[in-house]
């Protein structure tokens, strides 16, 4: 009885020290995470506060003028459709490339990082110089089909050039987002499925995509947000009418009159509100399904 009592007390003491050690590690990790995120949080909070202060200066007149503006209604429809097409194309193409090259960790990853680091203005310039009426693709079209004078991609009324520039930037982002995730799925399921005679394209649609719903949804939301208020691609490649929301905001803000500036501030407030909604949706996607995984 004495030995059992001593053993029980020793076990309880060891368990208590282990729990205290785990709690201290959890607190330490939390402090380190907060310290690492604090500069970004402070920067985002400062920018958001400054933008929100300008947005509040719009007043009721600014919001009423914004909603009554015919430019705004056309810009919403045009930017929304372009953003939807970019999100769908980029997510599907990026996921398929991640499926094909998820085991490549050298030059492919390096090249994708370069494309992600490029600004949208560089992507728009590349598309204009390649697919514009005086670009490489236009010269090839003139050689193959002499009656045609160009590609008609730049300043296209439905925003083809804008879509090409955006997906040129966004497909590598989706590829990098899903490469590590697909690499884990490949180790678990790919060889077994191939052994059973399943075709790779079937594995992609039946195994990879259903297991990557949350990463794909998060990437699609981010791409939609980036494209909806993008300025460079719309201004450099888009049509003169309708304009994109980001292009419309800059046009109103730098107007010489005071009334358009109030409209720009109101549009800025809507952009901030949509960004907050996007962040909340991403938080739900990232943390909403974690309990199911354990």
Textual characterization of the structure:
- The chain is an all-alpha fold.
- It folds into two domains: 1-36; 60-293, MetI-like (MetI-like fold), CATH 1.10.3720.10.
- The chain contains 13 helices and no strands.
- The protein has helices at 2-56, 59-68, 70-101, 107-117, 120-131, 136-144, 160-195, 200-211, 213-228, 232-237, 245-253, 258-288, 290-293.
- The longest helix has 55 residues, at 2-56.
- It is flat, with a radius of gyration of 26 Å.
- It starts with a helix and ends with a helix.
- The mean pLDDT is 78.
- The CATH homology group name of the largest domain: MetI-like
Query: Which percent bin holds the helix content?
Result: over 70%
The helix-and-strand class reads mainly alpha
Low-confidence parts: none
Could you describe the largest sheet, including whether it forms a barrel? none
Determine the mean pLDDT: 78
Radius of gyration: 26 Å
What characteristic shape results from the CA principal axes?
A: flat
Number of DSSP strand runs? 0
Question: What is the element string, with H for helices and E for strands?
Answer: HHHHHHHHHHHHH
Q: CATH topology of the largest domain, what is it called?
A: MetI-like fold
Number of domains: 2
